[in-house]
Design goal:
Blueprint lengths: L4 H25 L7 H11 L5 H8 L3 H13 L3 E6 L2 E9 L1 H25 L1 H15 L18
Helix pairs in contact: 1-5, 2-5, 3-4, 5-6
């Protein structure tokens, strides 16, 4: 069966959506009802150095306003804290709280379990090959949260 480029794009998007949706359901089952995978991606960006709404927006390719909204939600739920910047008293820096780190660890474990499910379906060697080939095709973009639309945070 021959597939075209649009089919490939839809399969890749469908794979991402399936993993994200299943991760969200599992986060809910594990006691994190208010944390969606897109918010978990925001936590990862904050833990990786996005210490302001502007920087988070840049890293996630969303507006500063969308990033600020997500920050407020994460702060309200105890996943993120705003700390005083010792070098500029007017500035607040973002920091992931212990609860946020716990949620990220759960998210990581969930995605590992989902990967294992896929390995069971197509075989570990095939999944390793798929992942290796996607890494080759995507290069650095494979781990770039700046990629347009990857997080869905603009709608949060």
């Amino acid at each position: 069966m021959s597939r075209n480029g649009a089919d490939l794009a839809l399969l890749l998007l469908g794979g991402f959506r399936q993993l994200a949706d299943r991760a969200g359901s599992e986060l809910l089952r594990r006691g994190y009802p208010e944390l969606r995978p897109a918010q978990e991606f925001a936590l990862r960006a904050i833990a990786g150095g996005a210490d302001s709404a502007s920087e988070l927006g840049r890293r996630l390719s969303v507006s500063k306003q969308a990033a600020a909204k997500v920050i407020s939600v994460l702060e309200e739920r105890g996943y993120v804290a705003r700390l005083n910047d010792v070098s500029d008293s007017r500035r607040k820096l973002l920091s992931v709280t212990p609860l946020g780190h716990e949620a990220m660890a759960q998210g990581e474990a969930i995605f590992d379990e989902l990967r294992a499910d896929w390995a069971h379906k197509i075989g570990p060697a095939e999944l390793d090959r798929l992942q290796r080939n996607l890494s080759i095709l995507l290069g650095d973009a494979a781990i770039d949260l700046d990629a347009s639309g990857i997080t869905g945070l603009a709608d949060e």
